[in-house]
Each structure stands twice: as C-alpha cells, then as structure tokens.
Amino acid sequence: MSRLNFVAAAALGVALIPGLAQADAEQLEQDLRTKLSSQGELKVAKVSDSFLGGTTTAEQVRLVDEEGGTTTIGKYIVKGDYEDPDEVILEGINMVQDQATLTMERMTFTSPGQAVLDLEDLPYTAENPLKGVSLKGLVLDQSEGEVDLDLPFGVAGGRIELDELSASDLSEQAIGSLTLSGLSATSDDFGDIGAGTIVLPSLTFSGLTGIETDKPTVDSFELKDLDIATDKLVMTLGHLVSEGDLADGKFSGNMEALSLNLAKMIELAPADERTNLRMLSNVLTGGSGQLDLDAKMDGSWRAQGANGQLDSQFEMTATDALRFGLDAGIPLTLPKGAEPAEYFANLEDWTELDTQGGDMTLTLSNLGAFERIAPVAATLMGVSENEWLEQIRTQAKGMSTMMGPEIGAVLSGLVQMMDGKAKDMTVSLALPPSAEASKLAQDPLGLPAVMQMQVNVK
After folding, report:
1. What is the model's pTM?
2. 390 vs 415: CA distance, rounded Å
C-alpha cells in the first residue's frame, strides 16, 4: 500500500470511529431500557463513547419503581468490545426503597459476557462462571426498612458497611475465591447472639462449592481480627485459618487468640443465671473473667490400595485453665470409586465410616482450672475442700468397682488433678473395627478392656 493510500485509509478509519462509537452508545441506552423499563420508569440523562471507541458510558441512569423506590447510577461504563466487554463498571450507585438505602462507590464486573446485566437473573453457572466482580464503598442501611434484593449480605433492622470486596469465578453453585476488607455491621437482631455490632477487617476464602446445598465446602478460609459485641456474646478472634480439602492428602486448621469476655456476658445474662455462670467463670479464668483459647489441627490421608489411613492431631489450650489434645490414626475402607475429598465433605454421620481399627490418644493437662474446682464445689456443698475431695475420691473408687479399673483410673486421675497432685493425664485406646461396633455396644462395660484402654497420670 502506497503512503498516500495508507493515509487515506487511516483518515477514513478515524472518520468512521465516531459513528461506530455512537452506535454503541445508542445500543447501550436501548439495552438499558429493554432490561430495566419493565421494573419502572427509566431515565437516562446522557450516553456517549470515547473518541477512539472502547468505552461506552451512560450517565445519571435513574429507575423509579411502582412503589416509589428509586435506583440511581451515576455512571454505567462498558469497556472493551460492546458485545463481549472486558469490564462493566457502575459508579455512584444509590438505591432507596421503603426507607432503606443502599449506596456504593463502585461495582465492577470482569468479563461479564454482556454489556447490560439483569442482576435478578444472572446467567452464570459452575461450568460458565462470572470471571470476577468487585465492590467498593458499600453502605446498606436497613434500620427503618428493607431493600428488596436477594443480597448475600445485610442484616434486618441494621446497617452494614463494607470497604472492599472482590470475588472470582462466581455462580449460584460456587465461588472460586473471595476477599473482603473493612466489614462492620450493627443490628437489633443477629439471631441467636442478639443485638449489637460485628466488625471483621479481613476475610478470604477459596474453592467454595455446594452453595445451593445445606453442606457447602471450602478449600481454604482465613479471617483476622473478628470483634463481636452483642447482648449475648462478647468476643474477639485474632486469626482463624483452615486449609486443605484432602484432594492433596492434607488438611489443617489454626485458631489464635479467641478471647471470650465472660465477665461482660455474665452482666448481660438473666439475673437468675448469673451466680452459676460466675462460679463457672471463676473456675475457668481464676476470677479474671477473660477466657483465652487457641487451637490447632493437622491431618492427612494416605491411600493404600482400596483402603487408606486417616491421621489427625488436634490440640486446644485455654490459657491458665487446661489443655486438651487428640491424636488418632485410623485405617479406612472407602466406598468403591469414592474420592476422599468429596466423600468426607458429604459425610453426614462419622459413625458411617468403615474403619478397620486404629489407635487414639487423648491428653488432658491442668493449667490451673482443676485446682479451682474444689474451692467452688466445697462452698456449694457447705464442707471443707479436704472433705469434698475425700468424698469425690471415695466416689471414684466406687465407680472403679462398678465400671472397671480403667474408668476408675480416669476418675482417680481427675481427682488427683483437682487435688494438685497431678498435672497431666493420657488415655490410650486401640479402636475396634466399625463392623464390630454393634456387638460391642451390647456390653459397654466391657469396652475399656476390648479397646485396651491405658491411663497414665503424671
């Protein structure tokens, strides 16, 4: 092509761009009216395209529904090919319905597949998910009414604020990943935990599936600095993380700095329950009213032909109170063709496991709580601590006669821990195959002997 022809072609292209861009702008307005006009009266102040194309914008999109509710979008921006845009961006969202309001600085859809979305009928499935969506600066106030939207968040009779949220690979069945930051909520009804506030600065998860079922599963999950203050629960949680779905043969979990403000919760409890709750708090916290918990779990699955080995370790520590641990190794037979990750995720009753024996070790350590039991119990009984301990010691010997020496050893170990003469107790068990469970259940008193129960008190 000669230089003259090239210049002429370029000039023709530049001349055509505004016309093509205008076609996209007109199409955007038409699509908005097609999708939204049935929901009420729609007004669009202005539609335009960037000079070189690639960005189509509708400004001051306003919808008034039949009940008088209004939805306003400051800018509706389509970036990329109009028929298959790279992004659809909504800026300056403001919704008012029945005295409830929802505002949002920005909402972005990544590769949505179409320029105008019907949020009440999204076409995405697990096989064809929405590539990504992000929110910024969301405020939902339902203290005086409710927004008529099927939202995955929000509290009745309250207010929720969210700094940012981003998610990928979304459908009604699954979410590939999600990250949110700066979540805070207030409500007069958080269900079982009552009225109050919830603050969650950080939450991430990945591999969420089974959303439409009552047994959703997630590959990994992490939250930080959760703070709940309601009229039934006062707590903070520094860090909670869970990783692994057994697809790679491993799973783990870790909880750090769970702090329960028992003193405050007792103040909020009904008056007739406070005395007993205060005694329990004194045993667990030594009078501080603050119970601090940490826990960790690790496990693995090793395939061995048609069978496999499930190993699990768990430990929970209540600061200045007690520590509990469990270590188990259990050989299993899975149903033919079953994948471990899917099988364990859908398992409703762990007694259904086809175990082939195994072993389990339970450990209990006294970090202060057991010595605090005797003073409280003796006061309730109106006797001295020594008298109460002697009574408990006698009862433990009686139970040993009735239920066998192994159970007696456990009870004796607990008494020694309450008397300050022991710190740790370990119980080791050899687990029978699950096929023998029904037979063994007919003679529960014989279980300790069958399970080769061994008790070690230090």
Report:
1. 0.87
2. 9
